[in-house]
UniProtKB/TrEMBL annotation, chains A, B, C, D:
<comment type="subunit">
    <text>Homotetramer.</text>
</comment>
<dbReference type="InterPro" id="IPR000424">
    <property type="entry name" value="Primosome_PriB/ssb"/>
</dbReference>
<feature type="region of interest" description="Disordered">
    <location>
        <begin position="109"/>
        <end position="141"/>
    </location>
</feature>
<dbReference type="GO" id="GO:0003697">
    <property type="term" value="F:single-stranded DNA binding"/>
</dbReference>
<dbReference type="GO" id="GO:0006260">
    <property type="term" value="P:DNA replication"/>
</dbReference>
<feature type="compositionally biased region" description="Polar residues">
    <location>
        <begin position="118"/>
        <end position="133"/>
    </location>
</feature>
<dbReference type="Pfam" id="PF00436">
    <property type="entry name" value="SSB"/>
</dbReference>
<protein>
    <recommendedName>
        <fullName>Single-stranded DNA-binding protein</fullName>
    </recommendedName>
</protein>
<dbReference type="GO" id="GO:0009295">
    <property type="term" value="C:nucleoid"/>
</dbReference>
<keyword id="KW-0238">DNA-binding</keyword>
<dbReference type="InterPro" id="IPR012340">
    <property type="entry name" value="NA-bd_OB-fold"/>
</dbReference>
<dbReference type="InterPro" id="IPR011344">
    <property type="entry name" value="ssDNA-bd"/>
</dbReference>
DNA sequence: TTTT
DNA sequence: TTTT
């Protein structure tokens, strides 16, 4: 016993969430998240990007599939989990994922709406941010 | 002995940073930061805002005074410190502050530049974010 | 909108939790928590202690009242909340608290049992730690 | 750009740190860390352990090699990094590590001393905890 | 594979 | 491979 296993990320989705429905009816969503760090080396600005495998379960997966899309900036809180699997050649491999326990969209108001087909959105003012939290891991509205 | 004292905030500056230079030449900056939470009560969307007193020292204060302004969205990492002071009526009072150890601007590219007097900025595209990190607590460029 | 408000503490309880039952039957517990930091100044080891007001609600308050006592080492995750109140002289005052959302006892096995009146506890081996988590904010067993 | 990549762990070392000195004189240390979670399933207490690869650089590696040993309870703060390497069969593999930026021993006073060969240690009192922090990533004393 |  |  004795443990804290916590991950806090702010980054952009590299792809739309991929949603699967397991046999028991459980929903799982996953997507890659990029967190980038900028630092200075010999006067040049270097950007280093780290990619994370994000996994969400149940209600949180449902919310993610509805409100998160490729490119969005998101705060994610979760825990690390390394699991093994067999690839196509039956070789045992390991992958480390971040199992999300909570997420919040960081961005402008338009980022909080599910994408629509309609054109002609209202112009946005400079400082128009908003967010969406799902502390309970379930639908927030 | 034995202690972790860590605060993680993402919110908007309520005012421009207020910068002071202490006798020994040390720079201190401070500003209020709002973190808002939205939840559902009886079908209505309630927004609850919490205000935090942010304090930054030395190099981090210099960076803050240059790159942070009222309204900007920022990630702040720091620690809690409660200090006492005497108000004008000589009454002892307590205030809890977040002493920043690190911050990152979260927002669009324009948010990374110090404010300029020139008018006529270039139009921004929808999904234009960027950030600025100062892990070492000193000027990052 | 847009906010993350997160506090992570590891420290010792300064007192036993104080438990109150509100009118609606809701349980609230609170206790002071010390987080200490040791640093070096001119070759001398300086210890600086920060005190935090911890507040717990409902099921988490019940668990805390049962398993936490003065002196125990605990990991606490929560959020900052500043509230105002009137003191006995009707002066408006402010206090900043950490509203716990989760806690974990860090310590040896004996620290996980509610205190008993019986004497003569079993001797402990050198490296005997264990912990107790309450992720859901409710009774964990 | 735009990124926060933060990991917070509390767990026990599965092995003593393994220290290497790279060509340029840089020190790297690494060890496995176990974080365990206990939960209830059908009235049975289930313990699930997650293993993390911890990597420390430079001064932090030196401190770790001196003060951390197998079995000790430690708080670690760092960031995720996934790197690829070729195994003996020239197969490309990936491993995700936690690059530590800070650590603190959590435990009793005896846990803060480097291990000694002498026998006959002084008995410890019940509530004797202490800690050791290395915020700057360098030797703290 | 994101973002700037 | 830790810890209880």
């Amino acid at each position: 016993m004795s443990g804290i296993n916590k991950v806090i990320l702010v980054g952009h989705l590299g792809k739309d969430p991929e949603v699967r429905h397991l046999d028991g009816g459980v929903t799982v969503a996953s997507f890659p998240l990029a967190t980038s760090e900028t630092y200075n080396k010999d006067g040049k600005r270097i950007e280093q990007t780290e990619w994370h495998n994000i996994v969400l379960w149940r209600g949180l997966a449902e919310v993610a599939s509805k409100y998160l899309q490729k490119g969005k900036l998101v705060y994610i809180e979760g825990k690390l989990r390394t699991r093994s699997f067999e690839d196509r050649e039956k070789v045992k491999k390991y992958v480390t994922e971040v199992v999300a326990e909570n997420f919040t969209i960081l961005g402008r108001k338009s980022d909080f709406e599910p994408p629509v087909s309609s054109e002609g959105t209202t112009p946005k003012s400079e400082n128009e941010y908003t967010n969406l939290t799902d502390p309970a891991g379930d639908l927030p509205f």
